[in-house]
Amino acid sequence: MTPPLSSVLIANRGEIALRVIRACKELGIRSILAHSEADRDSLPVRLADQSICIGPAAVNLSYRNAHAIVTAAQLTGASAIHPGYGFLSENSDFVALCEAEGVGFVGPSAEVIRRMGDKIEAKKIARRAGVPTVPGSDGAISDPEEARRVGEQVGFPLLIKAAAGGGGRGLRVVESAETLAADLAEIMAEAEVAFGDASVYIERYLTDIRHIEIQVISDGVATLHLGERDCTAQRRNQKLIEEAPSPVIDPATREKIARAAVALCEEVGYVNAGTVEFVYDNVSGEHYFIEMNTRIQVEHPVTEMITGIDLIKLQLQIAGGQPLGLRQEDVQIRGHAIECRVNAEDAARGFAPSPGTITGFRAPGGFGVRLDTHLEAGASIPPFYDSMVGKLICWGRDRDEAIARALRALEELRIDGVVTTARFHEEVLNSPTFRSGAFNTGYIAEFMKVQHHAQP
Ligand code: ADP
Ligand code: ADP
Ligand code: MG
């Protein structure tokens, strides 16, 4: 058996770096933070047992610099690298480099990441595992004539998706056959620039859906699921508010979707934590696989809050070769949790980034309140990185209590010096439609339109 991890190099920043440091401390694992020059004075650097600067602020020279990160792991004698989310977390070349250099990786193998990271290949694997997928093209589409044929079959509007897309980018809705050829050429060019891969495919564009995803965890022997998260509250295909359990999923449906997720993981030999994403049709009640994220996700805490299971600790435990030590029946769901992503963005200015220095800071507290953030008074939010600066996760015995608690905590939260999306979250949580739980992925856009019209 592999020895448990003695030290871990964290190749990330912000709240997720701190999240991993905390799990390491509780497990007695030495935490080593690899950081850029811009993050030298950040809270995660000060709280890690050790830190090492891997390059300048620009992500390609630091957090996306595979060679610098692997070298940092070797120099510090780290037994494994935790990639967090974003950056190199789903980069199979990076994981292959770790494997070649004999550095551990907290996540699945390079081979599994490569296969599931290609959304076209992932859909093929899903179909092989008997998991329903959104109707669309069988594989990549590059020929306008073929696109037209597929378009006739699936109907309009349709969605062109980049095989290597992520973070809500690489998706394009096509309203009619007239613009299809031009849209295809454009999105292929964009995908080439953004992801270094021009492959795209076509899916039916479903309009009345919810985003339902299943958290899975496997030690290579047993694959368990930890229920669903509902990430229907999205803006431009990016998640804003996530909750668990979903307000619309009953136990029988949960079981059905979760079983599909586990079947898919078993088909590819998935090891460690992962998320299988589905869209759920509000009208038919059918679910369709869309993609798998082969890493820890931003919204993992809502699952932790309702199951009492620390997912990052499980990740570290599995990477150290230890068994899960859990059975499916040990996973019990209790209460309801809601997460608001707090971004340093100005909702009134089209969510423009709002970097700067935090001049005053007050964290909310009390029963059922969890704030995952690296912010503190004096901290700086550099302009080079993602604008998400924290996550407020609130637990309640039921959904109403979780919402009331989140509103109370948002009121307590104070972040001075930059504009954040905290006030916007209060407005959404107060809206009757959000409170009813009956909405779809288009809701936030509608909500913003109404808000905008209501303004003088
Ligand atoms: P990403 O890799 O950027 O997360 P996904 O494939 O997960 O891309 O899709 C992001 C979001 O786009 C989904 O959560 C969903 O809201 C929307 N979406 C994806 N596929 C479809 C589809 N076929 N029809 C309608 N909406 C979709
Ligand atoms: P998830 O699938 O986990 O919900 P996304 O699909 O939104 O998350 O992808 C992760 C996002 O997080 C990416 O858009 C990336 O730019 C961003 N990101 C990466 N690292 C960090 C970080 N340290 N702090 C905040 N955001 C980050
Ligand atoms: Mg996704």
Fraction of residues in H or I helices:
25-40%
Quick one: CATH class of the largest domain? Alpha Beta
Order of strands, widest sheet = 13-12-9-10-11-14-21-19
Q: Round the mean pLDDT to the nearest integer and report it.
A: 97
- Weakly predicted, low-confidence segments: none
CATH architecture of the largest domain: 2-Layer Sandwich
Tally of DSSP β-strands: 22
Largest sheet: 8 strands, antiparallel
Helix/strand-derived category reads alpha+beta
**Would you identify the CATH H-level superfamily of the largest domain?**
ATP-grasp fold, B domain
Separation of termini? 66 Å
Which geometry do the CA atoms define? Answer: globular
What fraction strand?
25-35%
CATH level-3 fold name of the largest domain: D-amino Acid Aminotransferase, Chain A, domain 1
Each distinct ligand = adenosine-5'-diphosphate, magnesium ion
Characterise the protein shown here.
The protein is an alpha+beta fold. The protein has 3 domains: 7-106, Rossmann fold (3-Layer(aba) Sandwich); 135-204, ATP-grasp fold, A domain (Dna Ligase, domain 1), CATH 3.30.1490.20; 209-451, D-amino Acid Aminotransferase, Chain A, domain 1 (2-Layer Sandwich), CATH 3.30.470.20. The chain contains 15 helices and 22 strands. The strands form 6 sheets. Strands 13-12-9-10-11-14-21-19 form an 8-stranded antiparallel β-sheet, sandwiched between helices. A hairpin with a 5-residue loop joins strand 12 (272-281) and strand 13 (287-293). Helix 7 (144-154) packs across helix 8 (177-195). The chain is globular. The protein starts with 6 loop residues before the first strand and ends with a helix. Bound molecules: adenosine-5'-diphosphate (ADP) (2 copies) and magnesium ion. Residues 12-14, 16, 84-87, 166-167, 238-239, 293, 297-299, 386, 388 line the site of one adenosine-5'-diphosphate.
